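New to this. Please check both lines:
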Amino acid sequence: MVAAASLVVAAAAVAGVLAAFDDGRASDEAAPPEVSASPRLAPLPAVPSPSASATAESASPSPSPSVRRTPGPAPSRTGTKRERTRTVAGRLYRHPDSQVLGWVRSHSGDPRHAVIASRIAEQPAAVWFADYSPDTVTARVAAVTSGGAALGRVPVVVPYAIPGRDCGGHSQGGAPDLDAYDAWIDRFAAGLGSGEVIVVLEPDSVAQTECLSAGDRADRFASLARAGRVLKSANPRARVYFDAGHSGWNAPGTQAAWLRQAGAASPESSDGVFSNVSNFHTTVDEVAYDRRVLDALGGPAGLGAVIDTSRNGNGAPPDGEWCDPSGRRLGRTPTLSTGESRIDAYLWVKLPGESDGCKGRPGTFTASYAYDLASS
């Protein structure tokens, strides 16, 4: 792991006429919209941990008598193999209340406007639900999913409220405990509607579990498996993907062992895995890594993967910097037609320009950073 949460890195200056617009946050940062901004995730290792094993068996959590047995939806008929639904077709949904759209609407005279508007704001991106607000989450999710359904497009939503959602506490927040989380997921699922929707379930939740005891890890995995069942039961057209980390982190067998225990191999809970959320590894590397994870995971042959390509155009920085590293650029545009077997979508899960906390306040859209990504 690198860089503590308190680390502050000075933002790179924007040359020439653009420099004048970086002096005040009023012109450089957008106010958060009603939906959650994509938060700053924990600093992730640039290379696999020395303790990561290449075999699945070595990463399996030990059975523990303290495993929490969480009630969930009734299991499906035993002995019946459920086929994976076909790959979602159509176009992704662009939610109208994103921070970048707010900045674009209020900064038409900014010289960066055209680049940010055309290369970032016009692209569909995921909508995060990162605050624990059980009284409002159903309506907020429904606003997104119904907006997508009205246009015949596919929204991407990110529930991000699992307790202790990273080992170092960098992305503070989440539900107070797993019982509260289970209830929150029930309310989240109630807003999914009946149309096509992609659910990126809890970034960090599986890849970052080495810090948990065997019992706590098993409890988390039980809640995640339950969450997948609840989401797919609430909307059978929902496609739910589980956290596979990224290609520079855990070995595929290690990650697959954890994913299997979290329900990612079960068609009742899962449609596959996601990787590279808020990170920078190349699409080529992620495609190869995800296929290895899926091979090790087992489960139905149709399980697939989605990849966050929002900031990976130049790959990961060689020094392992994770917080708004300079020299990065936008990756492949979001699409449901990748042309790659077992890769269901390229998504912008982390909205480009929303800071990790170094070039702007954590989770805040920062125009100078967005412009750097879009103009590189």
Q: What stands out?
A: The radius of gyration is 20 Å.
